[in-house]
Amino acid sequence: MNQHILIDKAKRYEVPINEQTPEDYSYSIQKGYWADNTTGRPMMLSDDPKRPQTKKCDIETGEDQKRE
What we know:
This protein is low in regular secondary structure. 7% of the residues lie in helices and 12% in strands. The chain has one helix spanning 5-9; strands at residues 25-28, 33-36. A two-stranded antiparallel sheet has the order 1-2. Strand 1 (25-28) and strand 2 (33-36) form a beta hairpin. The two termini are 25 Å apart.
């Protein structure tokens, strides 16, 4: 039996290995978000230009990694 056509045509992408831990921020397990170490303000509310612009872990292909 042949594989499904989507499996045959699917592209595989290498998972980039890079550390994405932001500097000067700590993750709070209780609160569930990254916060600035000095102010305690949530990272997504900060004006820091180094902060991620999305909560997703997108690759340049536009594919997200939700495992859905």
